[in-house]
Automatic annotation (TrEMBL), chain A:
Subunit structure: Forms a complex with SecD. Part of the essential Sec protein translocation apparatus which comprises SecA, SecYEG and auxiliary proteins SecDF. Other proteins may also be involved.
UniProt record, GO biological process: intracellular protein transmembrane transport; protein targeting; protein transport by the Sec complex
Record protein name field: Protein-export membrane protein SecF
Biological function: Part of the Sec protein translocase complex. Interacts with the SecYEG preprotein conducting channel. SecDF uses the proton motive force (PMF) to complete protein translocation after the ATP-dependent function of SecA.
Entry keywords, A to Z: Cell membrane, Membrane, Protein transport, Translocation, Transmembrane, Transmembrane helix, Transport
Source species of the chain: Geosporobacter subterraneus DSM 17957
Family: In the N-terminal section; belongs to the SecD/SecF family. SecD subfamily.
Top-level taxon of origin: Bacteria
From TrEMBL, chain B:
Descriptive protein name: Protein translocase subunit SecD
Transmembrane regions: 258-276, 283-301, 307-326, 347-372, 378-402
Broad class of where this protein is predominantly found: membrane
Species per Swiss-Prot/TrEMBL record: Geosporobacter subterraneus DSM 17957
Subcellular compartments: Cell membrane
């Protein structure tokens, strides 16, 4: 398989997905979770499916500006999400309104989550910081074990993956919350892992293929590792897809970006990381030649 | 040689099989009982159900003053939580002004939060039930030794000016009563009488001493209770999570189902695609899962929902190490090497790749652990344990099993190894 001579196609494809995601993100805004914005989430079991309007009606007196989502197998559960910071008494008051109306017991208050506004900002900042630190740590390690250019190419592939996953979040309106941070960091780890395996082969082949061009070396290396790349992604995806199919909402919100991330991580290790390295190497070679002349 | 190798191999497979059985079902031999992994695992609130709440103290105090306030607040909360009789509550100070309270298995979340956050529980009550003053009017309570009464430990009270006035009026009235049980001002904490001293005279200056046959411990305990009854600061809820027990259990069961099917599919794929090595990897993978679970239990780590995802993801990554090795093995075989030589050089060449790839992932894991909170840390722990164990099983166990297999000499055809 020839990868390097179609570099423009691969880059174009990635840019297209990222741009679509960015546009969607700008139009709709990212669906920020309450742990990033501050707010309150409550989940009740109503015992039957209740129309959204009816629920809106019940909570109208509390002036929450809430999102209402159905959950559970038969949509008998309802999730109420609001940016309002409700304390325990206020939450209890809202539950009481439902309790009376639908004859519920205390057990039907399935879960509640509340984040003060300050904590949201803290979690968000810590998330950004941790991604930055992780990236720097990896760059340092790759520079130490390989060379700086591999490191930069790997980080570019990484950024690509993060943007693609962000696009997925924007397109599917997945809430951006603390699971998002874990998902992104997992993808960061996975994508680097994948890229390193290819680079490892390039590093090895550079020694053996002294006369070959960088394109040839990259192509050969990718072809030698592609079975591994695909098989590993496939087995990892198998288990995560099962998690998505069978899991509860909280897990699905985590599994979907991971599925996207592993797919794009594999893609970028083949179609982004190595071409970036090749382009840079060739550019460097060309410059040297001019300098010599 | 053949038979010896076959026996060792069978033994290993039998041990792993037995381990898996014990892990799922548990076992009892005589007095010793090994519970199933599920029962031994410490589950996070999101899987077990329960409440956690992070409270922030509204105070501008800093340094020692802040530490004193926070220590006192934590003490009050601990006492209240212990009164609820829950198992394994966890109360820790987080950062400067925050206290995180975790109550696994709390049935009524709302009630629990109410109990913790209640302020001013301490009341001074007249015999007729009338409340004289409450805890926030108590400035201090400490153990003193009354020198004029032979240095017995007593508890001195100090009220603020408002409290002092109320206390003066009440003591004047009560001390004038005829019967002894009319002359008592009870100190009530959370609806429990913690002390019921008799009032002998009017107490005007906002300072009172409770004497009695206290030991030092009793006196300091009472003083602490009186001090502690008044939460020194107002607390606001900055973060709460209350998960009902049914929801948590549901999450756990569904995740376990997903893991079982996921693992089965992965093993199936490995065997179909890589044949003999695939079968060996499957055995090693079972061992991997067992080790990870028991290491987890051994560390006393708490399994959270993201942790489950991390665990399943790490299985995928454990497969990766095997895949890298087998692809190398295939290449070496195609290059015309013998089976034994191919295994040796395949493993050797795959090792640096596996190391480099996994160390970079570990870097992400460490950062996650360092900067993440709660469930995310759980995820990071699983991921790192997973990576460590997967390197061991892939590099050591798979290699050992593969060599045993080859030495048995039944499966000589290199086609069975993917060549």
């Amino acid at each position: 398989m020839m990868i390097m001579n179609k570099t423009k196609i691969w880059f174009g494809l990635s840019i297209a997905i990222i741009v679509i995601g960015l546009i969607m993100g700008m139009i709709n805004g990212l669906n920020m979770g309450i742990d990033f914005t501050g707010g309150t989430m409550m989940q009740f079991n109503l015992g039957k499916e209740v129309k959204v309007n009816e629920i809106k009606d019940i909570i109208s007196e509390f002036a929450l500006d809430a999102d209402i989502i159905h959950a559970g197998q038969d949509k008998q559960e309802v999730i109420i999400k609001t940016k309002a910071d409700l304390n325990n008494d206020q939450r209890q008051e809202i539950f009481s309104a439902f309790k009376e109306r639908y004859n519920l017991t205390d057990e039907d208050f399935l879960q509640a989550e509340q984040f003060g506004p300050a904590i949201g900002e803290e979690i968000r900042n810590r998330a950004l910081l941790s991604i930055a630190i992780a990236a720097l740590g990896m760059l340092a390690y790759i520079t130490f074990r390989f060379e700086f250019k591999f490191g930069i190419a790997a980080i570019i592939a990484l950024l690509h993956d993060i943007f693609v996953v962000l696009a997925v979040y924007a397109i599917f309106r997945i809430p951006v919350n603390s699971s998002f941070v874990a998902a992104i960091l997992t993808i960061v780890g996975y994508s680097i892992n994948d890229t390193i395996v290819v680079f490892d082969r390039i590093r090895e082949n550079v020694k053996f293929m002294k006369k070959a061009s960088y394109e040839e070396i990259a192509d050969t290396s990718i072809n030698q590792t592609i079975a591994r790349s695909i098989n590993t992604s496939f087995t990892t995806l198998l288990s995560i897809i099962m998690l998505y199919v069978l899991g509860v909402d909280a897990i699905r919100q985590f599994a979907l970006p991971l599925i996207a991330g592993i797919a794009t991580g594999t893609y970028s290790s083949i179609f982004i990381a190595s071409p970036v390295w090749t382009l840079w190497k060739n550019w460097e070679k060309k410059n040297k030649r001019y300098n010599a002349a | 040689m053949k038979i010896k190798n076959a026996i060792i191999l069978l033994l290993i497979v039998a041990i792993i099989g037995a381990g898996a059985f014990v892990g799922i079902k548990g076992i009892q031999i005589g007095e010793t009982e090994i519970s199933p992994v599920r029962d031994m695992m410490k589950l996070g609130l999101d899987l077990k159900g329960g409440v956690f709440v992070v409270l922030e103290a509204e105070t501008d105090a800093t340094g020692d003053e802040l530490n004193r306030i926070m220590g006192q607040t934590q003490g009050v909360i601990e006492r209240r939580v212990n009164a609820m009789g829950l198992t394994e509550p966890n109360i820790v100070r987080e950062g400067d002004k925050r206290i995180r309270v975790e109550l696994p298995g709390a049935k009524n979340a709302q009630e629990a939060i109410d109990m913790i956050g209640k302020t001013a529980q301490l009341q001074f009550v007249k015999p007729n039930g009338e409340v004289i003053l409450s805890g926030n009017q108590v400035k201090n309570a400490e153990v003193v030794f009354e020198s004029n009464k032979g240095n017995v430990p007593s508890v001195s009270l100090e009220f603020n000016s408002e409290g002092a006035r109320a206390f003066q009026a009440a003591t004047k009235e009560v001390s004038a009563a005829a019967a002894l049980n009319e002359r008592i001002i009870a100190i009530i904490l959370d609806d429990q009488i913690i002390s019921a001293p008799e009032v002998r005279e009017e107490i005007p200056n906002g300072r009172a001493v409770i004497t009695g046959n206290f030991t030092i411990d009793e006196a300091s305990n009472l003083a602490a209770l009186i001090r502690g009854g008044a939460l020194p600061v107002n607390l606001t809820e900055v973060q709460t999570s209350a998960i009902g027990p049914t929801l948590g259990l549901d999450s756990l069961n569904k995740s376990i189902d997903a893991a079982k099917i996921g693992i089965a599919l992965v093993l199936l794929f490995m065997i179909v695609y890589y044949r003999v090595p695939g079968l060996i990897a499957s055995i090693a993978l079972m061992l991997y899962i067992l080790i990870v679970l028991y290491v987890f239990i051994g560390f006393g780590a708490t399994l959270t929902l993201p942790g489950v995802a991390g665990l399943i993801l790490s299985i995928g990554m454990a497969v990766d190490a095997n895949v890298i090795i087998f692809e190398r093995l295939k290449e070496e075989l195609r290059n015309g090497k013998s089976l034994r030589a191919a295994v040796d050089s395949g493993f050797a060449r795959a090792l640096t790749t596996i190391l480099d790839a996994n160390i970079t992932t570990v870097i992400a894991g460490i950062v996650l652990f360092q900067f993440g909170s709660g469930p995310i840390r759980g995820f990071a722990v699983t991921l790192m344990i997973g990576i460590g164990v997967s390197m061991f099983t892939a590099v050591v166990i798979t290699k050992m099993l593969l060599k045993l297999f080859i030495n048995i000499n039944i499966f000589k055809n290199t086609k069975l190894y993917g060549a």
